[in-house]
Amino acid sequence: MSRKIHIYGNWKMNQLTDDIYNFFDEMADDSLAELKCQGGIAPQFPHLSLVKEKAMPVGIKTGAQNCSHKTSGAFTGDTSPEVLKDLDLDFVIIGHSERRTVFGESNQLINEKTLLALELGLEVVFCIGETLAEREADKTFDVLRTQLDEGLKGVPASKHGDIIIAYEPVWAIGTGVVATPEQAQDAHAFIREHLSNNHGFNRKELIIQYGGSVKPDNAMGLLSLPDIDGALVGGASLKPGDFYELLRIGSELTP
Ligand code: PGA
User: Fold this and answer.
1) What is the pLDDT of residue 34?
2) Mutate to test the pocket of ligand 1, among 91, 233, 238 (most ligand atoms within 8 A of CB)
3) How many domains does the chain fold into?
4) What number does the ligand 1 atom closest to the CA of 215 have?
5) Which residue of 64, 99, 150, 182 is most buried, as measured by CB atoms within 10 A?
6) Which of 41, 232, 238 to mutate for ligand 1's pocket (most ligand atoms within 8 Å of CB)?
7) 69: which strand partners?
8) Cα-flanking dihedrals φ and ψ of residue 181, to 5°?
9) 197 occurs within a structural domain
10) Residue 29 confidence class, pLDDT cut points 50, 70, 90
11) Active-site residue (options: 96, 98, 105, 123)
12) Structural domain range at position 86
C-alpha cells in the first residue's frame, strides 16, 4: 500500500482539562514525533486550543467534531467553521452517526457543512455507515451510496484531496463489536470504487478510515487490508497507551 495511514481520535463528549494534561504527559515519548503515520485528535470545542498546543509539536493534527453549515449569524450554540480556521485547526469531523441519529442531521445539512468547511480550507473527515437493520436488510451499499452521493454533492475536484472518508458501521460504534476484516474490506472497496467511478476521486490517493471499536489488538488486522487507510477511534483514543500503540501500528504499516 502506498498511502499514509491516518489514525484520528474522536474524543466525543469526554475529557476534563486535567485529563488532557495527563493524556499528553503519558503520551510524551521521544519517538512520537518520529512516527510515520498521521495522527489526529478531535476534542470538545473548548479544549481545541489546548489540544492543538500539545499536539502540534509532535505532528498530530487537531480538529473539531462538528461545525455549523454557516459562517456567522444568529445560530445560537453553533460553531462556525470559519472560527475553526481562524484558530488554525486542521480538520473537522462531519456527519458522524451520533450527529445523524441523536441530532437528526440530514444528508443535505451534512452536505452544506462539508462544502463550507472545504471552501474555508479545512480537511473534512466525512463519516458514513449503515445501521444493523440496514445491514440485515442487505441495504449496506445502498445506504453508503446515498450518503456519499447526497453528502458530497457539488464538492469540486480541487478539494478531493482534503476529504477523508470514515466508514463507521453504526452497529460497531462503542459496542465492542468490530466489523470482520471481510465486512470492512468489502465496504471500503465499494466506497473507493464508487467515489472514483462516479465522483472522479483519485482511487490511489483517497484515504478511507475504518471506525467502530478499533483497539490495539484488532488494529493490525484491519489496517493491513488493501482498502483500509486508517482508523477513526473513539473509546481507545481516550487512553494514551492505546492511542500511542495505534499510532505505532499505523506507522509500521505506512510505507
Ligand atoms: P468507538 O467509536 O471506537 O468507541 O467505537 C468510534 C467513533 O464513533 O468514531
Assistant:
1) 84
2) 233
3) 1
4) 3
5) 64
6) 232
7) none
8) -55, -35
9) yes
10) confident
11) 96
12) 6-252
CB 49 within 8 A of CB 74: no
Q: Report CA(252)–ligand 1 centroid distance (Å).
A: 22
24 CB neighbour count, 10 Å cutoff: 19
pTM of structure: 0.97
Pocket of ligand 1 (CB under 6 A): 10, 168, 173-174, 211-214, 232-236
- Within-domain flag for 192: yes
Quick check: is 1 in a domain? no
Atom of ligand 1 nearest to the CA of 174: 5
In a domain, 20, yes or no: yes
Q: Is 5 exposed, middle or buried (0-12, 13-18, 19+ CB in 10 A)?
A: buried
The string of pLDDT tens digits covering residues 163-187 is: 999 999 999 999 999 999 999 999 9
Q: What is the full DSSP assignment across the chain?
A: --SPPEEEEE--S---HHHHHHHHHHH--TTGGG--SEEEEE--GGGHHHHHHHHGGGT-EEEES---SSSSSS-TT---HHHHHHTT--EEEES-HHHHHHS---HHHHHHHHHHHHHTT-EEEEEE---HHHHHTT-HHHHHHHHHHHHTTT--GGGGGGEEEEE--GGGTTTS-PPPHHHHHHHHHHHHHHHHHHH---TTT-EEEEESS--HHHHHHHHTSTT--EEEESGGGGSHHHHHHHHHHHHHT--
The mean pLDDT value for 74-85 works out to 98
Instruction: Please confirm, yes or no, whether 96 is among the known catalytic residues.
Output: yes
Question: Does residue 168 have an active-site annotation?
Answer: yes
Q: Read off the CATH number of the domain in which 159 is found.
A: 3.20.20.70
